[in-house]
Amino acid sequence: MKKISIKDIAKMAGVAPSTVSSVLNNKNKEARISDALADKIKLISKKVGYRPNSTAVSLRTGKTNIIGLIVEDISNPFFALLAKALEDEIKKHDYRILYCSTENDDINAADLVQMLFHRQVDGFLIAPTAGMKKSLIELTETNKPLVLIDRYYPELKIPSVLVDNKLGITMCMDLFWAKGYTKTGFITTNVEQVNMLEREEAYRDSLKKNKVAVSEKFILKIPINLPYAEKVKKINLFIKKNPVLDSLIFSTNYLGIAGLEAIKLCRLQIPQDIAIISFDDLDLFRLYTPGITTISQPIDEIAKQAIILLFNQINKNPQQVSQRKPYTFPPHLITRKSV
Amino acid sequence: MKKISIKDIAKMAGVAPSTVSSVLNNKNKEARISDALADKIKLISKKVGYRPNSTAVSLRTGKTNIIGLIVEDISNPFFALLAKALEDEIKKHDYRILYCSTENDDINAADLVQMLFHRQVDGFLIAPTAGMKKSLIELTETNKPLVLIDRYYPELKIPSVLVDNKLGITMCMDLFWAKGYTKTGFITTNVEQVNMLEREEAYRDSLKKNKVAVSEKFILKIPINLPYAEKVKKINLFIKKNPVLDSLIFSTNYLGIAGLEAIKLCRLQIPQDIAIISFDDLDLFRLYTPGITTISQPIDEIAKQAIILLFNQINKNPQQVSQRKPYTFPPHLITRKSV
DNA sequence: CTGAAAGCGCTAACAG
DNA sequence: CTGTTAGCGCTTTCAG
Description:
2 copies of one chain form a homodimer.
Chain A: H1 6-13, H2 17-24, H3 28-31, H4 35-47, H5 54-61, E1 66-71, H6 77-91, E2 96-101, H7 106-118, E3 123-126, H8 133-141, E4 146-149, E5 160-163, H9 165-178, E6 184-189, H10 194-209, E7 219-222, H11 228-241, E8 247-250, H12 253-266, E9 275-279, H13 283-287, E10 293-296, H14 299-314, E11 327-329, E12 332-334
Parallel strand pairs in A: 1-2, 1-3, 3-4, 4-5, 5-11, 6-7, 6-8, 8-9, 9-10
Antiparallel strand pairs in A: 10-12
Helix pairs in contact in A: 1-2, 1-4, 6-14, 9-10, 11-12
Chain A binds a DNA duplex through helix 2 and helix 5.
């Protein structure tokens, strides 16, 4: 694993660097280099373990084989699983991932886009923050391949892949209605991201469809960057203030976790005192007693589709007639004992 | 965010590219460029949002400001948290992370080292697989900055940062002894990684110290790449075969998870029928009923120290008198109701 | 004080 | 069939 350059190989083989380059990039035919020579060059470079300097290749070709991944927080289990699934898919194309967490900060996010762009990444996979519109518009103007994941911007025609958020919450509500729960609280974040807004909307729609007036006090919006303990406290208070509630929906995994903790503090029994469903499936929800009913996201499918859309752009695949609507995948309702 | 090069800036300012370069790299003094001119150049490049092409800078300077991170699996909560902590620390140095998962495959791991090396990363953070010795030796011979995390190679003098694995298990055992448990089973993986071996060793040592013969049938080694359901099955069987056991230690988080599932299947009560402790603290363990006693790793401290050691090397800091022993941090025993 | 020139390692056009 | 040449965008002498 020494620093060995194409010139070294050329010297060893007694040819010019360009000849080595052609051979190693399988351009034998175009350059019409004799098979014997090609084999010789290949052999030598294999023997000394030659691998081209990616930086030089990138500078020359303008390609880095690196995709920039921007998520909210790589330590969130949802994003960790998504990142792994994306990594697995992208590996097949011989690409790598440079990842960054936005911490849900718009300025941070815009910076990361800039930084990755100037690092010449070949494409972007972004779970955008709520205030990233400007940054995304700028990015699209550069024609860099770009796919949004987990969230999207309805006004921007950017290929997006995500779970069907409305369907997920509708499934929750339908289950509640079917089981006779009529007073469902909705616990969500205060961020204005489409995915969260759609979840809330589906909650409201379901109430309306069932001719129940939406009661604003049954909706709790928790500031996203509040420390965990504060979140628990807020939920705790919310539950105490609304003893009439017979069921709760947590719109995302960490709220579900905080919710379980809050319910424990209130000494309420699930599902006798209160039934619950959380978005995102976790080991915790599966193994908790009682098992928690969840809306599980099809992470692998989302990752696969995102990579397809990304490489359609990278390879300028014409079939990529970018449809206006985001690609959505239905979630799975995993029913357990919590309802 | 257009492609704007140093030449463009030079033209706009009516100077030579090299002058722009000097100014932007704060080499005004050495180049003795007038403050007025420097300010003018800075202003212009700020106004048009100029950012140098990182690829070109890298090719020229040999620095990429990218660190290669190789872990077992980014979707494992331990590594996800570690990755996030590392990202946070590394950001302060204006570096980024290119990450890869080994899937615990030695060949894969060796490939990743090669790949990252030829991508000119400025340093490596590696949680090595058991069979990575050769690859690591090769890497050290290149003098690339390198820090091992979570695991280490006793024979190789490579700076390493990890939790004190032995202490962790000793704490478990001491707690068991103190509470009167005398038949403790140990459930671990079959991989020959030092961290795992040390955990097992501590278990054996504790028994010996307390004059209890080590019973091999009380140790269960589960193949690491077995599907989750199979792991549960193995543990289930192990418990049924050894009804004499009054307590169990799970040597890593996913075994703890599988263990809870297995115990549920056996319809055993924790801690009445069997007491348990798991390595790694998870939401699941905290919120499970009963709460599971765990050995929590000081992830942030590990990340901080790893970054310190890495940048000591990158900056050729002489104080980095690479000590032979790995840097270890004591874990925290979090006692809950499971013991 | 400033600019011209070389070169990092590679690839692609083109000339032999 | 193969080698020469130019140049990707930047930094770094070094000459003026």
